[in-house]
């Protein structure tokens, strides 16, 4: 293109066509890059789901509650979670409850019964079973263990 610009017998029509082709190519490349960073409807829904779980995890809402709030079916919501997050809505809720459980166990002097109640469990034994099923330890064992290996074992349960 530069060589053609320097030639005296330059045909401007050819130059304009080259320029047009170059601009079309650049425009397509820009559109591809924009599509990569533009949030999709699915990513927006999953972000809203995350916010809803953060707001309602203590209330132990079912998948239907979140699906209704996002205006989709429960089956479709779980399908989106599996496809994009490799998890389910219930697992997301459980992980959030587990994080808060550990935070309260390590950084508060609340009893296990008080923590269970604060996290929406009406029965302490259900909370203990929930916690042990995920971590492999009871809340009391985790709190009293305190060693690095105990904490790591609770963070990486054998599934």
TrEMBL record:
Keywords: DNA-binding, Transcription, Transcription regulation. Transmembrane segments: none annotated. GO terms for molecular function: DNA-binding transcription factor activity; sequence-specific DNA binding. Pfam families: HTH_18. The keyword Transcription regulation applies. SMART domains: HTH_ARAC. Residues 47-145 form the HTH araC/xylS-type domain. The keyword Transport does not apply. It comes from the Bacteria. This is Helix-turn-helix domain-containing protein.
């Amino acid at each position: 293109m530069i060589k053609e610009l320097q030639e005296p017998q330059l045909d401007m029509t050819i130059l304009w066509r080259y320029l047009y082709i170059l601009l079309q190519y650049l425009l397509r490349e820009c559109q591809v890059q924009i599509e990569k960073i533009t949030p999709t409807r699915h990513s927006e829904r999953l972000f809203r789901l995350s916010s809803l779980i953060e707001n309602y995890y203590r209330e132990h809402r079912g998948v239907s509650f979140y699906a209704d709030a996002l205006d989709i079916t429960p089956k479709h919501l779980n399908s989106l979670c599996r496809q994009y997050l490799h998890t389910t809505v219930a697992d997301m809720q459980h992980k959030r409850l587990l994080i808060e459980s550990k935070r309260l166990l390590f950084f508060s002097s609340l009893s296990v019964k008080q923590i269970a109640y604060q996290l929406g469990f009406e029965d302490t034994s259900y909370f203990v079973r929930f916690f042990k099923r995920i971590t492999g330890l009871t809340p009391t064992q985790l709190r009293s263990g305190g060693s690095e290996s105990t904490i790591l074992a609770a963070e990486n349960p054998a599934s």
